[in-house]
Write a structure and sequence with these properties.
It contains 17 helices and no strands. It has helices spanning 3-29, 31-38, 44-60, 62-76, 78-98, 102-105, 108-138, 144-172, 175-182, 184-202, 217-224, 226-258, 262-290, 292-314, 319-346, 353-383, 389-405. Helix 1 packs antiparallel against helix 10 (184-202). The longest helix is centred in the middle third of the chain and has 33 residues, at 226-258.
């Protein structure tokens, strides 16, 4: 590949993931304000729960979105699927920002918000995996691990960007202005990212090496590749559980079991997420040299054995110990997140690659990962053991370890499976 083509492909593959997690961050940041805008005046807690309930519904749409967008990718090409997914993310994100609230539309406001989040859920279900497949397929020989890691880099970067913009607006605007209209601006800005991404992707040339299947990729996947989809889900489970637990739920955990202020908990979490960025890219680069499986096996052993000690370190009032515990988990999490795109893409034949990877990935992230914070909170309440969420990480590491044992090393393969 010529350098301009490489840069264009990398930008096209990354920008959708960035927008997806940007939206994820700003919705979470402004959930309380959204609840007040779109739901009738009632208990403030009920408003927040309603806003997050719609957020969760979007997650339940992810497996369906993976099937739809994956089928488009296998039938009509990666470019068509990527163009569809970024449009289905950017337009609803903008519309959330301009949608009138309950005071204007009444019951129609939460209904329309729900529909928009469901469309976004469909997009997210396909975008995450399509970007991985696209980047790994377009990567130069010997660079699939490195280029694939940029999909994970974009997702984490989008989350940090959304959090930073949300915090910036909260700091610059008076509380009344932020509640009235300020929270809408970050959503509307998402349209600009979407337009740039759509244009970049429309300018791409379809990869001629991608073959079109004679039969339905979805039917073929469901009938003939069930074990492969299960293996893809198994490989992704440690990343799903680990990320949602240690970089999302952990903010609530620190406040609940340690009595840490929200600002301090977010500060520790933000520093750790920034540290994820170089670890993911370095892991992708190393996997091209030493192999995918050795790196992931080492990371899984560290994640399994360190889950309790790392969480124990965070269960201290000293901010340095909290940060140290989370930074320690950054190492296994960053390695697995960085290597995962290449591992999943290289494991699946081309004819059903988009569909099979999307199904397996979204089972892990959309369903199991999405339920992880709720499960962790239930464990803490049920067992009265503050460190009990570590058991989830240990179980996920064991499942991914077993799935990797059933896979072969693919980093030395000259080409992807046909």
């Amino acid at each position: 590949m010529k350098p301009p083509s490489t840069r264009r492909a990398i930008a096209a593959g990354m920008i959708g993931n960035l927008l997806e997690w940007y939206d994820f961050a700003i919705y979470g940041y402004f959930a309380a304000t959204i609840g007040r805008a779109f739901f009738p005046a009632q208990d403030p807690v009920a408003q927040v729960l309603s806003a997050f309930g719609i957020f969760a519904l979007g997650y339940l749409m992810r497996p369906l979105g993976g099937m739809v967008v994956g089928d488009i990718g296998d039938r009509h090409g990666r470019r068509a699927a990527l163009t569809f997914s970024i449009t289905a993310m950017a337009v609803p994100t903008f519309l959330v920002g301009v949608l009138p609230g309950h005071a204007t539309l009444g019951i129609a406001a939460p209904i329309l918000l729900t529909l928009l989040r469901m469309i976004q859920g469909l997009s997210v279900g396909g975008e995450a995996t399509m970007s991985m497949v696209f980047l790994v397929e377009r990567a130069p020989r010997g660079r699939r691990g490195l280029v694939g890691s940029l999909a994970s880099l974009a997702a984490n970067g989008g989350f940090l960007t959304g959090s930073a913009i949300g915090a910036l607006f909260a700091a610059l605007l008076p509380a009344e202005a932020l509640t009235d209209w300020g929270w809408r601006v970050p959503f509307m800005l998402g349209l600009l990212v979407g337009i740039v991404g759509w244009w970049i992707r429309r300018m791409l040339e379809e990869d001629p090496s991608v073959t079109r299947p004679a039969t339905s990729p979805l039917a073929d996947t469901l009938h003939n590749h069930g074990p492969l989809v299960a293996r893809v889900a198994g490989i992704a489970i440690f990343n799903a559980v680990g990320f949602y637990l240690m970089f999302l739920y952990i903010v609530t955990w620190l406040q609940g079991v340690d009595g840490v202020s929200p600002a301090r908990a977010l500060e520790v979490n933000t520093v750790s997420m920034v540290a994820l960025l170089p670890v993911m890219v370095t892991a992708g680069w190393l996997s091209d040299r030493v192999g995918r499986r050795p790196l992931m096996f080492g990371a899984l052993v560290l994640g399994f054995s360190g889950a309790l000690p790392f969480l124990w370190l965070m269960h201290h009032p000293d901010p340095l110990l909290m940060l140290g515990g989370q930074l320690a988990f950054v190492v296994p999490a960053g390695i697995c997140l960085g290597v995962m795109p290449a591992v999943l893409t290289e494991a699946v034949p081309a004819g059903v690659r988009c569909t099979a990877v999307s199904l397996g990935y979204n089972i892990a992230f959309g369903i199991i990962g999405g339920l992880t914070p709720l499960t962790a909170a239930w464990l803490v309440a049920r067992t009265e053991i503050d460190l009990s969420p570590a058991w989830l990480i240990m179980a996920a590491a064991a499942i991914t370890f077993a799935a990797l044992l059933a896979s072969r090393e693919t980093s030395r393969d000259a080409t992807l499976p046909a």
